[in-house]
Amino acid sequence: MAPGGSELSEWGRKAERCPALGAVGPCTIDHGRAISAAYCAASQDFSGPRATGPNFGVEPAEIALVSRPMSSLRAAAVFGFVALFISTLFGCRSPGEGGTEPSPAKSSAADVTLKGVDTSALTAREKSEWSRLVSELLSPCADHPVSLTQCVNESRSCRACAPAAKMLVDLVRRGGSRSQVEAVYKARFSAEAVKQVDISGAPREGSAGAKVVIAEFADFYCPACAAMKPVLDGILKKYPNDVQLVFKHFPLTNIHPNAEKAARAAVAAQRQNKFWEMHAELFANQDKLDGGGIDEIAKRIGLDMKRFAQDRDSEATADAVSRDRKHGENLKLSGTPSLFINGRPFVSTGESADELEQWIALEIELIGGSPAAPAADKPAPSPAPPASAAAATSAPPASSAAPAPSASR
């Protein structure tokens, strides 16, 4: 069954809560850092010692606990600054609004109609915004440096133009701001967006001859990563011949202190050809991993415990996790889960599950894939990585490797 209904909404229901402020979202390297900087600055005005806590320096609640008195006027100024800072970051916003980002000047755009592109679901305002986008954004093909409108209307040979215009319909309908929509468009079609993702020796699931390779950087303690698992499982089930999933370790030890232990356990399980069994159990039991929880999982999935302990604690396993994390840092990752689809960083306007499935379907279409095939039996587990794995990278196939420059302006 394809990801849909409750599976697709799981991403939104099961995301991590920021330990400092209660902000909901994926696990990020900088959780709490920006707000803590404001609190640190504000606390300079207190005559007492600065309150500190585990979440990047300052706990919001602890500012009220400073023992030495200060003038009520200064207190009001400090707390007013902090309240303003918080409301700026987390205040009520309209769907798609980009926070404090100034709204771009909106030029009048003629109402656009493109052959084969249905815009009937858009409101008048959304249709106007979509018309502006397709009139100003360059086509996805570098050898056709014209607007999407011109590309479609002139039936240019760029196969991606009409699908790109349809994608913009969905993004605008979901309420994405212009900056969000342009970021998605650039990630999806710009040649500069493609990254070389090293997948050598990494565990993989799905067809060996897949047209689409999804490289996922994840942390086993990250609830948002656990929520992404059924979505990716659904995609693999829907496209058994076209999609392969590759897992890369990116433990965020600054917010999940034991995440590296879980990553090492997964590598050790991979050496006994049971990575995906360990992968499933770690995500399903995130609240039970500390203490002896991981060892209990290892026993439950039938690992040789003596070999498991040796591999988990070995320098080679530590190096494997470190290599993945370093590679993620070089790719400028800021959190988990981070996905690369044929080398392109997956970017969404907020409805990640729906947009991910549409991105995959479009990638298969542009490469020349067939409609979704019936579900196949679950592929065999990934073999343990050899001592010296051949180099491998995830990048767009030749047939789809010429997407265009980013949006025009």
Give an account of the 3D structure:
The protein is built from 14 helices and eleven strands. The chain has 409 residues and is of the alpha+beta class. The chain folds into three domains: 32-90, no CATH class; 124-193, no CATH class; 201-389, Glutaredoxin (3-Layer(aba) Sandwich). It has a five-stranded mixed sheet. α1 runs antiparallel to α8, α4 (124-136) packs antiparallel against α6 and α9 (259-270) crosses α13.
Outline:
With 409 residues, the protein is an alpha+beta fold. It has helices spanning 6-13, 33-43, 72-90, 124-136, 148-153, 161-173, 178-189, 223-238, 259-270, 275-284, 293-300, 305-312, 315-330, 352-367; strands at residues 16-17, 24-25, 27-28, 197-198, 204-206, 212-218, 243-249, 335-336, 338-341, 344-345, 393-394.
The secondary structure category is alpha+beta
How would you write the strand order of the largest sheet? 5-7-6-9-10
Morphology = elongated
Give the name of the CATH architecture of the largest domain: 3-Layer(aba) Sandwich
Proportion of residues in β-strands? 5-15%
Care to count the β-strands?
Answer: 11
- Sheet with most strands: 5 strands, mixed
The topology string of helices and strands comes to HEEEHHHHHHEEEHEHHHHHEEEHE
Integer tally of domains: 3
Q: What is the fourth-level CATH superfamily of the largest domain?
A: Glutaredoxin
| Rg over C-alpha atoms, rounded to the nearest angstrom | 24 Å
CATH class of the largest domain: Alpha Beta
Number of helices, where a helix is a run of at least 4 consecutive DSSP H or I residues: 14
Mean pLDDT: 75
Distance between the termini: 42 Å
- State the helical fraction: 40-55%
Which fold does the CATH topology of the largest domain refer to?
Glutaredoxin
